[in-house]
Amino acid sequence: MEFTVSKTDLARELGLSQGVVEKKTTIPILSNVLVEAGDGQVQITATDLELGIRCSCPAKVTKRGSGTIPARRLLDYVRLLPDADLQVKMLDNQWASLVCGRSRTRIAGMSRESYPELPVMPDPMVNIPAGLLSSMIKRTGFAISSEESRFTLNGALLLLKADGIIMVSTDGHRLALTESKLDLPAIGAQFRALLPKKAMVELEKLDSEAAADSVVRFSGDENHLFFDFGQRLLLSRKLTGNFPDFDRVLPKDVPRSVELNRDELRGSLERVSQFADERSRSIRLHVGPGEVKIHSSISDTGESEESVPVDYDGPEMEIGFNAQYLLEFLRAVETGTVSLHFKDPNSAGELRPVGSSTIYRYVVMPMRI
Amino acid sequence: MGKIRILSDQIANKIAAGEVVERPASVVKELLENSMDAGAMTVRIDVEAGGRRLIRIADDGCGMLRDDALLAFERHATSKLSDAKDLLAIATLGFRGEALPSIASVSRLRLETRADGDSTGTRVEIAGGRLLRCEDVPAPRGTSIEVADLFFNVPARKKFLRSEQTELAHVASLVTHYGLARPEKAFLLNHGRSTLLDLPPVETLRERVYQVFGSRMLEDLIELEPAERGLEAASDEDKPLSFRLRGFVSAPSVQKLNRNSIYLFVNGRLIRDRLLLHALSAAYYNLMPPACFPVALLFIDCDFEEVDVNVHPAKTEVRFRHGSFVHDFVRDTVREALIAAKPAAAMPMPPRPPQPGEGLPYSEFSQRIEAGAFAAPETPAGPDSAPGKPAAGFDLRPPQAPPRRLEFDPPVARPDLDPKPVLHRAPDSHSLLPDGLPLADASLASLSDLHPLGQLHDSFIIAAGRDGLWIIDQHVAHERILFEQVLEQQAEGRAESQRLLMPLVVRLTPSQQIEFARIAAEMERSGFECEPFGNRTLAIKAVPAGVSPADAESLVSEILDVSEQELRQASADDLRRGMAASIACRAAIKINTRLDAAKIDWLLRQLAATSCPMSCPHGRPIALRYTTREILRSFHRI
Amino acid sequence: MFPNFYGNSQAAGRLWDIARSGRIPQTLLLSGPEGIGKATLARRFAALVLGDPGRIELDDVSREPNQALIAEREKWTAEKRNEDPLVFSSHPDFLTFAPDGPLRQISIPQMRLLREKAQFQPLRGTRRVFLIDRIDRANEQAANSLLKTLEEPPPHLVIVMTAENAYDLLPTIRSRAVMIQLGRLSDEEMEAFVRARGLDDPARRIALAAGSPGAAATLDLELYTARRAAMLALLETGAGASPFSSWAKVAESLSTRKQDRIEDLMNVLLLLLEDILLLQNNVSSIRNRDLERPLATLARRVSFGWLRTAAAQAAELCALARRNIQKPLALDAFVISLTRAA
Description:
CATH topology of the largest domain in chain B: formyl-coa transferase, domain 3
Strand content of chain A: 35-45%
CATH architecture of the largest domain in chain B: 2-Layer Sandwich
Structural class of chain B: alpha+beta
Distance between the termini of chain B: 50 Å
CATH class of the largest domain in chain B: Alpha Beta
CATH superfamily of the largest domain in chain A: DNA Polymerase III, subunit A, domain 2
Mean pLDDT of chain A: 91
Oligomer: heterotrimer
Helix content of chain B: 25-40%
Strand content of chain B: 15-25%
Radius of gyration of chain B: 30 Å
Largest sheet of chain B: 8 strands, mixed
C-alpha cells in the first residue's frame, strides 16, 4: 500500500475516529486503525467491536492495499506535521513509513488479517437532514443513566415512525423526550432501537460536522444501526433490553403551570444551589402569586433565596427538586421561555420549551426535603 | 504440658519442675521479679545461646547479707535432688520466692551479692542443687545471679527447649514487658555481644514506648489522658473505690489480625483478660472492621482487693470484683480518646532497620528474632527484604543518647542503589524525643487546612498539609460525611428523598418480608417510600436522595438482610446506624470517579467537619498521612 | 462430532446436539479436573454456534501470546488491571473471561464488563457466546455481580462457564446453569491425543498427565521432575524417613523459584500420595513408575490416616494459595504438621 494524502485531511479524519478506538488493551489490534487505500481515496476504520467508524478522504493512491497502524500514535504524530502532503507506505514487515517534507517516520503496525470485519450497511431506509439527530441528542443525552439497572439503560430509545423521529432517555428520576416531525413513509409502522450512549456521543460529533444541507442515510438491521454521512459511516450494535413504557410516565394530569424566563431561572438556580446539599442538590420551588421563590439551605453553612416573577394565581405550592436536574434541561433547551407544569408536591413536574414547534418534554420527579 | 506425656513417668515427674522453670524466660522472670522487689533501679540481663548456655542478671538493688543468701537456697540446697520426689515438692510449692532453689536445682548457679552498708559481698555457687562454695568476695552493691547450663542435669527437659531464637524471643518479650511497666527503671538486655534492648530510665511512659518501639509506632498511638473513675460504696461496709487508667491505644487505621498487640497491665502486672479485651473492642466499634484489633498498652491501677489474681496458676488472668464497671470505664475512656484525637493513619512505610521491636507486638518482635534475623546485626537489609516484611538485617541496637551528627538509615527497599554497602551505621537516635522537628500532630483536625493537589487513580485525593502529605480515600470520606448526615436527618425525621419515575418492584424473600414489616417505619424515616405490593413484593417509590435508581434495589435488599441477620436484637439506634451506613455507602462518590477541584475542596471541608473523620462506618480508614518527618527521613535529610 | 477433541465423548456429544438443535440453554456449566478440555470444548461449541472457528481458537488462553499477556498483566497494579479488565475477543461475538492477576482470579471488574458487553446485540446472527473460564476462581462479590446477568440474560446471550468442581460454586449460580460433567481421559484416549500432537516421551507424559490432555501438552518434563523430587523430599521428611535438614535444602531452592506455585507443587504431591496409596493396596500400576522404590518405602512407613491428613492439607494449601500465603512458610508448616501426624 502506498498513497499520498493531505496532512490536514488525514488528521481530521483520524481525529474523528479516536473516540471509537478501543481504550482497553486486551485486544491489541483494536488500538489500531485500519487504513485501506483504493480508488483515489483512503479509508480509515476504527472499532471497539461495539461501535465502528469508517472515514475516507481523497488521496493519490500509488499502490492499493491496507494495513493497521496504532491510532493514538499516528494521530499524535500527524497533528504535529506541517500542513503539507504526507506520503504513507506500508512496508512488508507491517511497518508503516510516513514521509512529509523533511520528516521521515516509521511506525510498527499489525497485520490486517486479525482486524475485525465490520458489517455491511444494508440499503438505506430513510434520509434524515443533517443536524437533526445531533440536536435531538443534545436534548436527551444528559438524562441517560450512567449505570444500568432494571429500568434504566446506558442508551436512548430511538423510534422512527412514518411521521417523525422520537428520542427518549431516562435515568429513573427523570425522562427527556424529544420528537421531530418528518415525513418518513418508508418506515412503515415503526422502527424501534436502543442507541448506546457511546454511539450517541460519536453520532453527535459526526452530525455536527456534516454540511448543513446534507442528509444522513439511516439504516438498521437485526443487530445494528448505520448512519451514513457520505464520506463517513458510523455503525453501532443495538442495545438489548426493554425501554420503559414512556407513555405511562408522561404526566397526563398537570393542572397548573407557570412560564419562566429561561436565563433568569437558570441564573437563580445556579446561585441558590450553591447552598444546596452537594450530593442531593435539593432546592425548593415555592410557587405563589406573581413569583416563584427558589430556596435552599444547608443547616450550618448557609441559605439562599431568590424569586423569579411569573404570571400565576393558583394555589401556593412548594415542591422539592434536584437543582442539577432542572439546570441540565435549562442548558439544553433552545427557547428563551420555558414552562413548568405541576400538580402537587408528590407528583411529577414537567418542563417544556415555550414558543417552539419542537416537541420537547422533560419529566422530573420531585424530592421530599 | 502435652509434650511431657510421651516421657517416661519417672522423668515426667522430674520435669514437673518445669511448672516453675520451664525455659530460660521463666528463670529471667523469677530473677527479674526478685530484682524489682529488691528496689533495683538498673537491671542488666545478659543471655547467651538464647539463655540455654547462660543467663546473668545483675541489679543495683538492696542486695543480701551472707546468711540471707544462703537461706535463699537452703531448703533444697543441701539435698542432691536426685530423687524425683524432691523435684515434685518444689514444683508444687510454686510461688515466687521458692523459685530460686528450683532454678539452682537444674543449673549451675552463681550468686554474688552485697547488701547496702555491708563491707564485703558474698558468693554462692551451686550446681544441680549441690552447694559447691560459699565465700566472701568484693562485690558491688546489689545482686548478680548467673545461671549457666540450664537443665544440664535434666536432659529430657533440655531436649524440649526450643531453638535459641525462640527462647531468646521469649526472654526479650518478657524484659520488654517489665520495661514498659516500669519506665523509671533502666533495663539492658544483651545477647552475647549484641544489645537487644537498652532502656535508660525515663520519666514518662510515652518516652518508654518511644524507646521500645520507636517514633513510628508512637505516631500511630494515641496517649490516653490519665483517667480516673470512682465507684461509690455499695454499702457502708465497703469503701469507695477508684480505678485509674492510662496508656496508649492505636489509631483505628492500625489494624492487627490478632490480639497479640494488646498489652494489659493491672497494677503493673501483665495480664490477659477477656473482659478488658472486649471493652477495647467495644471502644473501636464502628471505627474498625469487626475481625481486626488495635495495638494497645493499657495500665489499670486499682485497689489490690479489687482484683483476684489467683484465677490462673500463671497469674496472667485476673478477675475484677466490679467487672462491668471496669469494662465500661475502659471502653468509654478509650472511645473518648479516639474521638478526641481524630488520628490520621500514617503511611505504611518500609521498615527502617534500627528500630527495636518496630511494629510493636512482641509476637512480631519475637518472630524476627526467631527468624534468625538477629543473626547478622551489622548487615544492612538485603535485596530480598520485601517491603512490609521485617528486614533481614534487623538490628536490635537500642536507642542511645542522640548523637549530634548526620546519620543515615540504610535504604531498606533498594540497597542495590547505594554505591557501597553501609556497614557501620550510626546508631539510631530516639532515646529521647528528638528536638527540632516536633512529632507531627497526627490529628485529622488539620484536615480543614489541607491544600488539595489532585487525585490519584481518580480514587484518592492527594493533599498537602502543614504536617506532610495526605492521601484520602474519596469514597470512604464521602461515606463518613453522608453517614453522619443521614443519622442527623433520621434523628430529625426529615431525611431527603427522591421519588422515582416508575416504582421499582422488587421480590422479597420470606425473611425479608418479615423484616420489612418490622422496620418499615424506620425505613421511611431514612427516606424510603415503599409499599407492599401483593405477596412478597415491594414497590419502591422513593429512595434516599443521592442513591441512584440502579442501586435502589440492592440497597433495599441489603438493608433488609443486614437487619435480619445482624440487627435482629439491636436497638432502634443500632438499626438506624446500620441503615445509615448502607445508604451512605450506596450514595457516596465511588472510586474511579474524577472530581473537580471544587468538589475535592468541598469533600475535605465536609470531612473535617464530621465528628469522626478517621474511619468509615464500616471501619476502614479514610486518610493516610505521610509526615514531613518521614519525608525528610526518606530523603536522608534527618 | 467435534473434530480434534479427545475423550469425554458423551459430554461433547451432548454439546454437539445442543448446538445443532438450536435450542441452546442460556447458561452452561462444564465441570471437571484441570486440563481435560473444558474450555476447548466450550470454544468448539461456540464455533459451531457462531462460525469462524479460526478466530475463536485464537482466544485459547493457553496459547503463548495469551499467556504472555496474562503474565505481563501480573506486573501491573491492581488498579490498572481493574480499569482494563482481562477479556479476549478475537471473534466479535465470542468473549473469553479468564482468571487474571497474580492470584489468577476472576475479578469484579471483569464481571462488570461482562454485564456491560452483554447488553450489545450480536455482530452477526442471533447469538453471542461468553466463556467464563474457571468461574470457581471468582470470589463471592464477583460471582454475585455475575448473578445479576445470569438472572436476566439478554435473549441472545449464551454464557458458558467452566469449573473444576461445580459444587464449589454459589448454589444460585449452579442452579441457573445446565451442568455438563467431564472426566479424566482413559489411557487409550490420551495415547490418541499425544500421538495426534506428536509429543515427545509419550509413555511418561501419559502417566504423569493423569488423564489430562492439557497437562500432557504443556508438561515440562524437566520442571516436573524437579518439582516431584521436591515433593518427594517433603513427604519423606514429613513421614519421618529423613531429617528436617534434608527438606530444608529443598525448601531453600523452592522458595527462590517463583514459577513453582503452591498449586503446581500440590498437584504433583497429590499424585505421589495417590501412588503411595495404590502401593499400600498392592496395586502396581502407579503413575510415577520410575519412583516406585522410594514410594514403596514410604508406603510401608505411613498410615492411611497420615495420607488422608496429607491430602487434606494439600487441598487446604491450594485453597489458601489464592489468599496469597507465603510459600516457604506454608510448606514448612505442612512438613511439620506431617511429622506430627506420623
